[in-house]
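In line with agreed milestones, the collection of sequences with tokenised folds has grown. One record among many is set out beneath this paragraph:
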Amino acid sequence: MPSTAKPIRLFISYRSQDPDMSLAQRFYEALEAAGYESFMAGESIRLGENWAQRVDEELERADYFLLLLSPKSATSEMVTEEVRRAKELRARHPQHKPAILPIRVNFPWDSPLNYDLRGYLNRIQQREWKTEADTTKILQEILTLLAAGSPPSPSFAESEEPDSQPLTPYPFPPPNSPPLPIAEPELPGGQVDLASVFYVEREPIEADCYEAIARSGALIRIKAPRQMGKTSLLSRILQQAKELDYLTVPLSFQLADTAVFADLDKFLRWFCASIGRRLRLPNRLNDYWDEIFGSKDNCTAYFEEYLLTEINSPLALGLDEVDCVFQHPEIAADFFGLLRAWHEDSKSRDLWKKLRLVVVHSTEVYIPLNINQSPFNVGLPIELPEFTPAQVLDLAKRHGLNWSLDQVEQLMNMVGGHPYLVRVALYQITRGETSLTELLQSAPTEAGLYGDHLRRHLWNLEQHPELAKAVKVAIASPDPVRLESVQAFQLHSMGLVHLKGNDVQPRCDLYRRYFSDRLRRK
């Protein structure tokens, strides 16, 4: 029994399928027997209890977050959301709790990990479980860790030294694997063909982007809700740049700790250091950062006098998850004004012509920006549309399904042309896991194919009652309705609604039917 006044609490995150569930049960029972308080949804949530509220409460109380990371959980949107929240809570907690302990369950190190999890687990050490023999060994390490009564050491937690665990270039999933909830953004090492047989080109978007990235001083702006293929497009643009012998740096703002966004100087130093690190250039921030000058001037000097000077080729810089910056207006205006100034410099200064920018975001730009200092009204704007019936039919054929347009229309009447939802359906039908008829009958329920996806959205809405209320208004009307602009932008970035001028309507019948039932009682 641990000798602490307040029992140590653990949150066990897992997918409700074996071997994940059985292993979670083993850990739960062993930890409880050792005197620790553990939360496991299947064991801890009572019938009729509000699961979303209970999960939130347990995450906030947890000292440790035990993540069972398997091929199933790696594609679970609920598991990914739990990890995101644990990471967020850890960044805000004065004692950095909960500590995240990932265990890869029959999930090799070189297996593809979805984009969000890549960012959340960056520089966090992991353990690997292959057989029952590993259970005792890993459990003993966890018990030893808990008995110490202090946060875990770098051997089973976050690396203290940024360079001690470099980012691993995970490969793209093979064509016959299930679609990941979020596209994998980083290019694999070496000359690897990114043209998956299931990647759908939305002409003329790809061609326009490939043409634009070849121009000096290019700026491409990609906007679309979550899971629409933004990051897949970004990876292909950077691959095209690589084939032109450019240097390429994909940088997701999701990788930045929460504290980085609190101060413009700290943020710009992180930005410069991150790009230099990926270019494999030594960190020389102290040589160029002078407090006499402002942060933006220091950042510009670092690019002008060091980063761009040290390279002999153009640099294609892909900035992903720019929405993270929107949430911090105290730094957003200055940072985006800096990008705009660099873009303007590229029109007249040879050095800045080396820089090509690709900016990717989900949310509408609702922060106030001076029209002459915003990068969101210049360059090539790209807004990714949904798949058309012809594209879904072609994708069905690539899956080996001999579908007619009538079957395509049945699926699209439920999920629209949402790329991720369409691919999930085609993958499961091809594998014989379900039929189109069965899928359509159960789709808007938590027992159906999209249950995990729908629960994640419901969980997010329950965190923001004003957005849940706005969704209720939208689904109650057969016609587009007017919402407050920020609410409309947020729901659109989540992928739940379409923007129709100044009005919104539910994105697809799947969402209308599911939320009509689940939010009716709220």
